Fold this sequence. Notes:
Elements: H1 7-12, H2 50-54, H3 57-60, E1 64-67, E2 70-74, E3 89-93, E4 96-99, H4 105-115, H5 127-130, E5 149-153, E6 169-173, H6 200-210, H7 217-225, E7 286-292, H8 297-305, E8 310-312, E9 332-335, E10 354-357, E11 366-367, E12 371-372
Parallel strand pairs: 3-8, 7-11
Antiparallel strand pairs: 1-4, 2-3, 4-12, 5-6, 7-9, 9-10
One calcium ion binds at residues 102, 280-281, 283-285, 287, 336.
Amino acid sequence: xxxxxxSLALIAGGLLPPEPGGxxxxxxxxxxxxxxxxSRASAISITTPERIASQTAAARTEGMVWIxxxxxxxxxxxxxxxxxxxxxxxxxxxxxWIDTHEVTNAQFxxxxxxxxxxxxxxxxxxxxxLRKQMxxxxxxxxxxxxxxxxxxxxxxxxxxxxxxxGLWWTWTAGANWRQPEGPGSSVEDRxxxxxxxxxWDDAVAFAEWAGKRLPTEAEWEFAAxxxxxxxxxxxxxxxxxxxxxxxxxxxxxxxxTKEDGFVxxxxxxxxxxxxxxxxxxxxNVWEWCEDRFDxxxxxxxxxxxGPGAVVRNPRGPEVARDPRNPRxxxxxxxxxxxxxxxxxxxxxxxxxxRMGCAPDTGMSHVGFRLVSDAPPPAE
Length: 379
Ligand SMILES: [Ca+2]
Ligand SMILES: [Ca+2]
């Protein structure tokens, strides 16, 4: 059993003061719309069914496109970029297959029906595990806080301090992928929306079942750029507007004018594809990547490889470094931003934007898509 309350949940449950990212923020960067912290990683294993081994190459790559390998400039120094997106450096990735859209509720339901998998948000919180992350002497919270649940975006009714992310995230008992806003909500009419409230561990379990894997951070960014090397956005350098992707219009987090048609998730593929035929690489939901999150990894790569070197197929570090989440035991990368992003607060729909999150934490704006190492298409 794992404890998977983030600091946001602890704030929502009254166990931590409502300070952004704890008390030791060491980077001069805004805390983005998702600023989770502090949980414990876990190892979850799903036996890959035999059907994967017997699948044809076409079946293994259904709903995916082949991304030819290549070299690109990873990172950004755009005015909207945060410090962890620099320095820009040259990276090569080998070719790979990637889902054309985020994994949907329908796809996740098939996985759950076949395996009986229970997501972390559906499991009871283990106080004995959780207390290890708390200041000594922290009393056991009310049982209502320790019920299975997840963090749901809840817009405040008045403008708030944008550093106090706990003001728009509510720990909601009963919130999970089946009930994205908690009891009474349902995905029945959202089967073509991206699945949410999936932790990194849940996404890895799904990937194992599907015979695929999460993309590396470099693969994800290469794919998101759609062949437009050096552009600010996955569609070029034009601003986001309301027709490019599912983001937030209006004053975050108080009023959403819904110009793009969606307050929360949108059906996958509702917005134009990028140059590689991929939908929602910008916005809709954040997408988990394989790598551990490290704000300093780009600097470290250049230090190790030398200025001007091309870094080939980089993977994440062994240990996460996530100063925005000082209580985090571990942190994994998320990419692409969500329906909560806009230029005034968190322009993370840009392909270079990065986020770290505890791997046992799902939220109402986080999902994933997968890649495959199946052979490339025949010429
Ligand atoms: Ca929207
Ligand atoms: Ca997305």
